[in-house]
C-alpha cells in the first residue's frame, strides 16, 4: 500500500484516469455524431437546405418493383433466365437490407440494376400482353425513379462532409480510432 502514497504513482493514476475519461468522452460525443450521420441512410438527410429521402426507403421501393417484374416475368417462358436473375438479385438485396451492411446493400443494388436492365431489354421482344407491358412500364418507372432519388439522396455528401469537417481534423482524427468511433459508411 505504500506504493499508492508515492507521488509518481498518483501522477500515473491521474494520467490514466484523464486518458480514459477523454476517450470515453470522445466515444460518446463523436460516436453520437457519427451515428446521426449514419442514421441518415435510413431516415434521410438534410443537405444543402433540402430534406432528401432515405436511400433505404428507395431500396425498399426498388425491391418491391423488382418483385412485381418477377411476377410478370414468371408468366413468359422467353423471360425465364432474366426473370430468375432478377429474382435472385432482388432476394440478395432483401437479404442485405436485413443485415444492415451499407456497402453490401450498394453492391446488391448494383446487381439489381444490371438484372433489371437485362429484364426490361428482354421484355421488349417477349410479346407481352398489353396489361403486362403496362405493368412492366410502371415497375420500370418505379425502379428508375427510385434509383434517381438514390443518386441525389445527399447521404454520401453528408458522410464526406462529416469526414472532412470532423474526422479529418485534430484531435478528432487522432482520437476517433483509439476511442472506437467508426466513420459512417458511404453508399458506393
Task: Note down, in words, how this protein is organized.
The structure is a single chain. With 188 residues, this protein is mainly alpha-helical. 75% of the residues lie in helices and 3% in strands. The protein has 7 helices and 2 strands. Strands 1-2 form a two-stranded antiparallel sheet. Helix 2 runs antiparallel to helix 3 (80-99), helix 2 packs parallel to helix 4 (102-123) and helix 2 (55-73) runs antiparallel to helix 5. The protein is elongated. The relative contact order is 0.17.
Short summary:
75% of the residues lie in helices and 3% in strands.
Low-pLDDT runs of 5+ residues are none
Number of strands: 2
Separation of the first and last Cα atoms: 57 Å
Number of helices: 7
Helix-strand sequence: HEEHHHHHH
Mean pLDDT: 88
Structural class, please?
A: mainly alpha
Give me the side-by-side strand order of the main sheet. Answer: 1-2
What is the makeup of the main sheet?
Answer: 2 strands, antiparallel
Q: State the helical fraction.
A: over 70%
Overall form: elongated
Q: Rg to the nearest angstrom?
A: 25 Å
Could you outline the blueprint of secondary structure elements for this entry?
Blueprint: H1 7-43, E1 45-47, E2 50-52, H2 55-73, H3 80-99, H4 102-123, H5 130-151, H6 155-167, H7 172-179
Antiparallel strand pairs: 1-2
Helix pairs in contact: 1-6, 1-7, 2-3, 2-4, 2-5, 3-4, 4-5
Amino acid at each position: 500500500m505504500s506504493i499508492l502514497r508515492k507521488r509518481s504513482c498518483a501522477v500515473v493514476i491521474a494520467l490514466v484516469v484523464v486518458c480514459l475519461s477523454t476517450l470515453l468522452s470522445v466515444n460518446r460525443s463523436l460516436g453520437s455524431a457519427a451515428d446521426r450521420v449514419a442514421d441518415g441512410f435510413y431516415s434521410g438527410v438534410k443537405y444543402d437546405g433540402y430534406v432528401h429521402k432515405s436511400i433505404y426507403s428507395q431500396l425498399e421501393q426498388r425491391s418491391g418493383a423488382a418483385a412485381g417484374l418477377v411476377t410478370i416475368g414468371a408468366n413468359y417462358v422467353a423471360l425465364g433466365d432474366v426473370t430468375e436473375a432478377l429474382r435472385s438479385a432482388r432476394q440478395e438485396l432483401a437479404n442485405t437490407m436485413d443485415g444492415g451492411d451499407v456497402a453490401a446493400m450498394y453492391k446488391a443494388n448494383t446487381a439489381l440494376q444490371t438484372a433489371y436492365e437485362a429484364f426490361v431489354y428482354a421484355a421488349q421482344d417477349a410479346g407481352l400482353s398489353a396489361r403486362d407491358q403496362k405493368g412492366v412500364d410502371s415497375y420500370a418507372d418505379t425502379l428508375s425513379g427510385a434509383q434517381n432519388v438514390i443518386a441525389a439522396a445527399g447521404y454520401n455528401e453528408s458522410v464526406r462532409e462529416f469526414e472532412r469537417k470532423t474526422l479529418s481534423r485534430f484531435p478528432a482524427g487522432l482520437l476517433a480510432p483509439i476511442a472506437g468511433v467508426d466513420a459512417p459508411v458511404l453508399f458506393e
